[in-house]
Amino acid sequence: MKKSFKLFGLFIVCLALASCGHATLTYQGAWRQGQRAVKAEKYQQAQTAFQKAVKLKRTKQATAALTQVKAWRAAKKAQETGNYTQVAYELKVIKQTKPALTVLHQKATKLQQTSQTVIKQTQVYQRQLAKARALSDNGNIVGSNQKLKELLATPALKQAAYRQVRQEASALKEANADQLKQMQKNAQ
Q1: Which of 124, 68, 71 is nearest to 101 (CA)?
Q2: Chain-wide mean pLDDT for the chain?
Q3: What is the CB neighbour count within 10 angstroms for residue 46?
Q4: Buried-most residue among 42, 62, 155, 162 (CB within 10 A)?
Q5: Which domain of life is it from (predicted)?
């Protein structure tokens, strides 16, 4: 009887030790899975893997990786919608989070350069659009349309990053056309 209790006790101890080792392996497995997913640019999978790693073992490394992947996904989503202010914020989060995932840190640096260019160029386009608006507001529809024609002919304005400026310019062009029609109608 004592022998069976000893064997049972030994079995329980072995089971407990095995489960502790299994949790560490699961954390390591989740960590490696997250890293592989980042390298393969599968960021949803990476986020899920790092969330699992953090849940199993809250380390600074896993928490930082999760923060960076979430920020990268948010930056890419903001980029798709043309919200480069949000892109800049998310990239700052990635670059300030330590320890860094080297791959995301490098990608963030590249995207940051691109987003800074887009932000500056958007400001240039917005100033051109403001001039066209001012001309229209002062009754110079022909001058406004000329500015809009120049702006809308800019090849870069066709890029998704400048969608908002393009939409605003097109709306002003339509408003100018309506105003010209009204002026012609009133002249008759």
Answers
A1: 68
A2: 88
A3: 28
A4: 62
A5: Bacteria
d(CA 26, CA 182): 72
Per the listing, tokens 């592989």 go with 36
* 85-100 per-position pLDDT tens digit: 899 999 999 999 998 8
The structural domains of the chain, with segments of one domain joined by +, span 27-187
Alpha-carbon distance 71 to 92, whole Å? 9
Q: Residue 126, class by beta-carbon neighbours within 10 Å (0-12 exposed, 13-18 middle, 19+ buried)?
A: middle
Q: Could you tell me how many residues make up the chain? A: 188
Token pair listed for 29: 């497995």
- Run of H or E including 66: helix 60-81
Residues 71-84: pLDDT tens digits? Answer: 999 999 999 888 88
For residue 57, which of 35, 101, 26 has the smallest C-alpha distance? 26
Is 69:104 a contact under the CB 8 Å cutoff?
yes
Both tokens assigned to 13:
């101890």
Cα distance between residue 132 and residue 106, in whole Å? 40
CA 98 and chain centroid, separation: 19
Hunting for tokens 């406004």 — which residue is that? 144
